[in-house]
Specification:
- One of its GO terms (cellular component) is side of membrane.
- It comes from Laccaria amethystina LaAM-08-1.
- By secondary structure, the chain is α+β, with helices and mostly antiparallel strands.
- The chain has four domains: 84 residues, no CATH class; 102 residues, 2-Layer Sandwich (Tetrahydropterin Synthase, Chain A), CATH 3.30.479.30; 58 residues; 37 residues.
- 47% of the residues lie in helices and 22% in strands.
- The longest helix is centred in the C-terminal third of the chain and has 41 residues.
């Protein structure tokens, strides 16, 4: 559901109305004659059927009117109906809304000698109508030229990779530099937007190849880390399975598998006997008999130890 927000007075266009007066500047009899003639003609022009010029001018919302008498500015007016002297005064309307102007696509050489085409736009707002109207001849063209020059300077000091990855930082730096100059012209820079960066086919292929190699390298690093983690976990699992309790569990599982076979005979031997017999076999050498078969020579002491181990169990 759409909710309509009520308009507040503080959100509307601020007032630029100001009357500086004409001062003590006089234009003699000729000036007074034109002033009186303008008042008379304006009075007649206020009637709809009269062919005389209408003295009332309309200033739209979002604009400011600058009134000059004999070419000299003396007051500014807010939006609405404004009366001027048709013979001695002129009204100049200045737009104070946020304006958008394309900077235009231009070729720029980066620090590493790569040609790129950059397309951008500038957002600006007139905050001092007097300076914008009487302080510079062509405000829009001046802003565009200044932005183009600054763009070439900022991009030319960076490498091509920095231009691709730091687009917002470049736009912010350009806006700051242009804003310092535009403030003298009565203009506030709202922002500069880099719309597009166009490379030649050779540069595009080189950048995509570099990005692909970077992704391959990152995937290899991830795979190597996974291998290290897997080896660490396998080592921990081996340490756990090497404990006596784990060995007994594995033996019980093996006995369960052997017991499922109908033709097998299972002889249960205590764990202590197995360990004693294994120690006796390890501590005695292996000999070869006359038939060529190998056997363990226990000797008298070994046989006595083996019998004692069996009897103890």
């Amino acid at each position: 559901m759409i909710q309509v927000q009520p308009l507040k007075r503080s959100e509307m266009q601020p007032s630029y109305a100001q009357d500086l007066g004409t001062g003590e500047v006089t234009h003699g009899i000729y000036g007074s004659l034109l002033q009186g003639l303008g008042c008379a003609v304006g009075f007649l022009g206020a009637f709809p059927c009269c062919p005389c010029p209408n003295p009332f001018r309309n200033v739209q919302q979002g604009s400011v009117g600058l009134v000059s008498r004999f070419g000299q500015f003396y007051k500014s007016v807010d939006p609405g109906l404004v009366q001027v002297n048709v013979c001695t005064e002129s009204l100049r309307v200045v737009d104070v809304k946020i304006q958008i102007s394309p900077i235009g696509r231009q070729m720029v050489i980066t620090r590493d000698n790569v040609n790129v085409e950059i397309d951008s736009v500038i957002y600006f707002q007139i905050c001092n109508p007097y300076r914008a109207a009487f302080g510079i001849t062509d405000l829009r063209q001046a802003l565009i030229e200044r932005a183009q020059t600054t763009l070439r300077h900022v991009v030319g000091a960076r490498a091509v990779q920095s231009v691709v990855t730091e687009r917002e930082a470049i736009a912010f730096e350009i806006a700051e530099i242009v804003g310092d100059v535009a403030d003298k012209w009565g203009v506030a820079i709202e922002g500069i937007l880099i719309k597009d960066i166009i490379f030649s086919p050779e540069v595009s292929a080189s950048l995509s190849s570099a990005a692909q190699q970077k992704r391959i390298g990152e995937s290899k690093v991830i795979a190597a880390r996974a291998e290290v983690d897997s080896a660490r976990l396998m080592r921990q699992a081996a340490d756990i399975l090497a404990s006596p309790a784990a060995m007994q569990i594995r033996q019980l599982e093996a006995l369960q598998q052997m017991a499922k076979s109908a033709n097998s005979k299972v002889v249960f031997v205590p764990m202590q006997l197995q360990s004693d017999v294994s120690s006796q076999l390890v501590n005695h050498p292996v000999v070869q008999n006359e038939s060529g078969n190998e056997s363990v020579n226990l000797g008298a002491t070994g046989r006595v130890g083996l019998l004692n181990a069996v009897s103890d169990v």
